[in-house]
């Protein structure tokens, strides 16, 4: 069965003074069927977070354009993007007065398979058959408390320090990078990269339903509207990239 992709990137500033998220979707310049999606949620004072997130997208695009599967594995590519962006962000401390940090989500799609890597609490989802097949782990204090059974999922939603990250780019500690792969892709599969400004207001089931059953652009518009309404005037930056696999006409 021949597959094609339906994609979109979408952002909303929310109720923040500045948009510090960055997101990009890039086809490989010489290898058809190869695509890179990247999303970063920046933190660190006025312009600092935006600058950090921008470095993640720049590094992802640069490394992807030079990527050759014959000399570099997908995991090596993704790890190098995050590690090198981390170094660049740390160096910006010396040329600015900010303390910039960022999350990072990077997804590489090739014919029949996907690899991804992430650091922080921006998420990558794989949806199949209308539900969540895989989801990246948040590198946050509240997620660790849930994983170790100290608080419940319900308690996590109102935990006072739910935005505290245990790992990110630009910190003194080296970033924790988790890598995942999916093979045997089929029509109906959907992938979502998003910042906490989206997933903090939408359940996994709501995200899956929108991405699996609606065209990418329509899904993004509806999810932003939902997150904005539930933010009640205090919403965070929202960003996402959606990639849907559909049967070719």
Number of helices: 7
Radius of gyration: 17 Å
Number of DSSP E strands: 11
Q: What share of the residues does DSSP label as strand, in percent? A: 25-35%
Please trace the helix and strand order, writing H or E for each element: EEEHHEEEEEHHEEHHHE
Please tell me what the overall shape is.
globular
Structural notes for this entry:
The chain is an alpha+beta fold and 249 residues long. The protein contains seven helices and eleven strands. The strands form two sheets. Strands 2, 3, 4, 5, 6 and 9 form a six-stranded antiparallel sheet that branches. A five-stranded antiparallel sheet has the order 1-11-10-7-8. Helix 1 packs antiparallel against helix 2 (74-92) and helix 6 runs antiparallel to helix 7. The longest helix is centred in the middle third of the chain and has 19 residues, at 74-92. It is globular and about 50 Å long.
Features of this protein?
249 residues, alpha+beta, 5-stranded antiparallel beta sheet, 11 strands, 30% strand
